[in-house]
Amino acid sequence: MSNNRKRVLIVLAHGFEEIEAITPIDLLRRSGLDVVVAGVDDKIIIGSHDISVTTDLLIDEAGIDYDAIVLPGGGKGAQNLSESWLVHEKLLMIANAGGLVASICASPAVVLGPSGLLNGHKAVCYPGSEVNTPDFEFGDERVCVDGNLITARAAGCASEFSLAIIEHLLDKEVRNKIASAIMHKE
Is residue 104 part of a domain? Predict the structure, then answer.
């Protein structure tokens, strides 16, 4: 790595929830984090509301040098993430290296549950998605921070989710500066 900025991998699959992807991409980049957006099957990924996003690279080109991984939700997007062995490989590499795992909406239940990354943690997910992980009891907070795991419930929590990631990777001062700049209501 040529600089000391923390690196974040955000992974998109077809059917992702746009707000849950674009909000973290935007706010994390505003905070000075080095954000890399990877597509699972293509460099141009189509979201759940037919918005196309051009990623920086494909997931198989992403390398392993990241401080965090972020997985947006969307029912179909989460399912497509879960079906990619490369997503699970990156998740486990980053988690096992002590990196942050952040997941929102259906992804905590659909992707993290089967990977075993929820074991021993508290987490939240989109209401109804918990059926994908029947042996885990999800909470009902909007955003849940438990060690190196941050989860959130839905698109309406995307700003809070992103700010929690910023605070975890940087500090509360940077988080508050970004929150103020976007007029985020506490």
Answer: yes
